[in-house]
Structures
1.
Amino acid sequence: MNRLTAWFVVLVSTLTGCATPVPVKQTWPQAPSEIQEPCAPLKQLDSKATMRDLMMTVIDNYAAYYHCSSKTQTWQDWYRAQQKIFQEVNK
Amino acid sequence: MLQFLPDSLILWFCNILLLLGLVLTVLGFFVHKIPFLYQYQLPFKIAGVVLLVAGVYFRGGYAVEMVWRERVTELEKNLDVARQESAKVNTVFKDRVIYRDKVIREQGQTLVEYVDREVVRTITPECNNLPMELIEVHNRAAKLNEAVQQLESKTK
């Protein structure tokens, strides 16, 4: 009888573990992979570079800057938009 | 554990407990007038009060459980909506960055073509010999972030 009571107590105490409801988990979304790519390094000139090489390098570097700037701006806007959605859930 | 039981079962259990407690408590006051049962007045009263208290307690617990379940359901619904909106936002920004990259690449390409078509022929041979100082300054400017990277690698 004592053993039966002990088993009953163990069984009940295990069941009480389930009494705590599983909390609803809100996860932060994954950012698009396109904006997670690192910015490209700027190009440098060769010691025997010509005027054309200089212009091409300048164009490439400006393009690299604008690519990077676009990604950074998108990151900021993405963060603000997702934060707004995230906060709306708990209102 | 309550989550695994059907709502109706819990409600029935609570109601029966409450009703039984109520009936026994009331009976406890009149049982002395009923033949054969008059000697059970005290047990009736005690059992009635105990069951009534337990019934009220469980009924309250049930109400709280239901409120929590409702809040969880509402939160899950809100989360679903948020997930959908979040996915939409991701698509919008992904498309935006792809579009901007495309435009920048196209503009760069147009400029390169313009340089090759119009500008290169205007460059004199003297202009083509770039001074070393110019190349050096340009390259140093392109490596401005190296000092920061070196400092960061030292602190790591």
2.
Amino acid sequence: MSEAVFISDVPVEPWVLPSRGVVGMACLICAEAAIFIIFVVAYIYYIGKSISGPTPHDVLELPVLTTICLLSSSFTVHLAVVNLERSKRALCSLWLAGTVLLGAIFLAGTAMEWNDLIYRHGLTIRTNLFGTTFYSLVGLHASHVVIGLLMLSLALIFSLNGSMTHMHAAKLNVLSLYWHFVDAVWVVVFLVVYVLGR
Amino acid sequence: MGAGVGRSNRPAPTKSFCRFTRLVRFAQRRYPLARLALISAPKFYRRHFGRWYPALKRTLAGAGRRRQEADALSFVRRVVSQVTNIFAPAATPAHAIFHLSLLVLGITSCIFLVVSGLLLYALIRFRNRASATSDPQEPAQIYGSNQIELSWTVIPVLIVVMLFLATARIIFSTENAPKPSDALDITVIGHQFWWEYRYPKLGVVTANELHIPTGDAAHPIPSYLTMSSADTDHSFWVPRLAGKMDLIPNKINTMWIDPLEPGLFLGQCGQYCGTQHAKMLIRVYADRPAQFAAWVAHQLQPAAQDPAAAEGQAVFLRNACISCHTVAGTTAAGRFGPDLTHVGGRDTIASGSVPNTAANLRAFVDNPAHFKPGALMPEMHLNAHDLDAVAAYLTTLK
Amino acid sequence: MATQTPEIEILNQSTPTEPRHPWLEVLHGWVTTVDHKKIGLMYIGYALLFLVIAGVEALLMRVQLAIPNNTFVSPQVFNRLFTMHGTTMVFFVGMPILFGFGNYLIPLMIGARDMAFPRLNAFSFWISAFGGLLLYFSFLGGDGLYGAGNAPDVGWFAYAPLTSRVFSPGHSTDYWTLAVLLSGVGSVGTALNIIATAICMRCPGMKMSRLPLLVWLYIVTSGLALIIVSPLTAAQIMLMLDRYAGAHFFDTQAGGSAVLWMHFFWIFGHPEVYVLVLPAFAFANEIIPVFSRKAIFGYPAMVAASVGIGFISLSVWAHHMFTVGLGAGANTFFTLATMVIAVPTGIKIFNWLATLWGGRIHFTVAMMFAVGFLFQFLIAGLTGIMLSVSPLDWQLSGSYFVVAHFHYVLVGAILFMIFSAFYYWYPKMSGRMLSEKIGKWHFWLFLIGFHLTFDFMHVPGILGMPRRVYTYEADRGWMIWNVIVSSGAIFQTIGTLLFVYNMIRAYFKGPIAGADPWDAWTLEWATSSPPPDYNFETIPTIRSRRPLWDLKHPEDPDSNYEF
């Protein structure tokens, strides 16, 4: 038989399926979580196993300010989404700008920390196992922050020039999910590197 | 009637018992696998011997099957090599694995026969017959049955539990076997592409050909191998003695072997380690204790100083040989390559892959890549005269 | 006689600025397509090309191994051959062909017009394709210790520290790392796409409990792929950092661990083989019922077993590391986990058996390959049980017994089901039927070759022959077995060539298939062969797992019986 047409003779209840964007982002988050887990496992495995060179206890300080900034940025991006849903575009732009700013502060803080580690303490990725695992894990997270900030900046530009409306709230929500994930990863990295590892 | 038959207050053995034990000893020598039956159930035989041996003898003699069975077994032995056969165990770990494998084979064969039998039956019984083409009726559509699903979940779970328990027992008995105080300690270090053997308590260092003492069934002498690698991953595999264990840099692994009979046991590296992985062969010489003691004493001697080979020794010592090789009693103290103190006395060179003759020694030193392309020993670029001298010298290092 | 689907001009017309030559236009259409059907076909074609190349690599190895101390190829070349053969077959044949079938079939089976993210779909294909080209470029480019032209020679699982700069100078290992990394990115993209499609694009009435089993199995496969490809990517990033940034992840001199690479690789590597085999199960779940003329037995149990296999497969990885010295406790745990996975796998085999039972079995070529799959997968599973017993694995790990076992799964189960899937769905994809006569020749020749090679390959393993050896000693008694194994390769080659010929010939001269040549029951058979770009004229609404059965048997629809 060739193309068959199905005629529904009983009323079908409304057919609602989950949003593609959310499901897709959830899958991406699973995959990214897996990669972070492996770097975290490597970090934990090598705690205390460095043969020489600086140890975490010697050189690491709790990055309190940058952590607060990054975690707050989750809150601000959520507010941006909520405001866009309510078509309050100016407020949305404001909160997006706040998110980008807080993320940038986080990156700047990380850069300053690394500068200190490299030049004052002589810790590089090739120094010892601690250097290897620290820079790779924190660096992987930082690269995800960079990508997130790029996307958020794009969103901010669209919001500022008026192209973004409440119709795009779902897409902004998907982007915010990514940003929440990046923050959650930072919580884990913070606990493993700066609390457990020291 | 041979040692080990029994030293208790049992009545003297009958004539048929003597004949039986002669038969068993014969089988033991010709068919080593049969020895397993004896080792694992001697009490059973002795206790029930009076009852079933006459019946067995009648059955075998009647059918003439004994000769056919012996022929079948020897046929299999001829066809299937026993050199490195995991089903020809010669030490306790290999025996334990062999017994376990019989259980596993039994279970999996049963499962295979049952399931494939059912499959075959279904395919034949329910095939579409030509007469049915005119009949458009579809067969009865059965969508499932919870009871059936439950049954073929529970039965496999039970099989798995049983198999798992049997396996766990062997894992622990092999890996966590308590180490007797008189065990021989050997340090094995894997290199690309040769084996370094050190006997820490005896002070012996050698390469590629491992000598260990045998015990016997009453008093086994296990050799404990402590293993690591100097470069990449390797694996020590002598199938007739034990399962393999990997040699991994920056990690210490241990295993033990206790050959029950003297002999030469072959194996090779079991983990891909580079170009010449295939030629990293293992030769384990299981010596009787007296022979082993003599070997150790000989190995402890410094290198032979044969005046006829003095020129060769001079060539050896003034070339780069000494940067990689050790010859005890001379200035050569390199550790990158095999210890050559007693290389002349080995059966093979190039880690078991080349017979140790003067001609081969010369050819190997001239161009190692001819025998082992990718071996880490470079060409020594010696002229013909020096080559002859060095080869002659190495031959004298017995 | 299929009625021609009327062209909808508006949807299909492109607006060129100037007239193009037809073949250029066709090429442009394929290169820029985001249509899941075309992308699926590109994946499949690409994989078939690499199947032939990797098959040639296998043939060369078998010639070298036929006699002891052979000099057909040098050890360096042999080591490259087995590395490339394994890497190609897993990443550039297995994954693409299975994702290709998934891409083609899933939207059709769920009544959708395309995948959830068509552009991501195209991107995933092209990046995987680039990875394959990069891997094979290594034969031409790169420099290293042994001169120009080095393909990687570290084995497809590339154990550290063999892959460090010290032991693998030059760029051959980097080709392996980067090519597989790119393929992994493509796999993650496709897996994400499949899950999003299956969850978010179903036609009305297709609840998850009415999803065709093929789609369920692809969901599990994709979920696994999402979770496991990242560990491999992570390990490869670590390897690149070791090789180029001086990091010490696997640098044993600095306290690093070679075992850590093994853990990371096998956390990927074991579920990866399930990613390869679950689509084969997916095909079996569609093909066996149709040719038994019965519904699949125990649909909920099949779904549960498949999901169970997916979960358990994440916990068994260290059965590849029984000889590494993890300790009795770890060995025992992984033995148990590996044995446990046999239970849901067995449930699936029994359900297929029950589907056949009481049916009317039509032995078309597709069904013959499916039957071969059933027997061979049973045997492969049983040799897997043997290997799960870790003391036995201490003997057999790294030997030809393992090679025989996994080829039994990869060729005997997966490749047989892929052939079956070709014979079943080729009519849908091309509109023509493959020749059953040539198909039968293909089947029998390939079956004989497969059994000659892989049945007898178990024996050298038992006799102590390790794997990845470019030659072996004459006194071990392995030669006769290697000769038999090598001879089987010839039959397989001829069979495969016949298969390729069958496909090409049928494309031009095969009988027209029509929309539903097999009298099947899932939605892809409800549209023309090949389907139009938009798949269905009208998106259907369905009320059971077998919508076409309901249509063909309106007096007795499935919806009355399903639970």
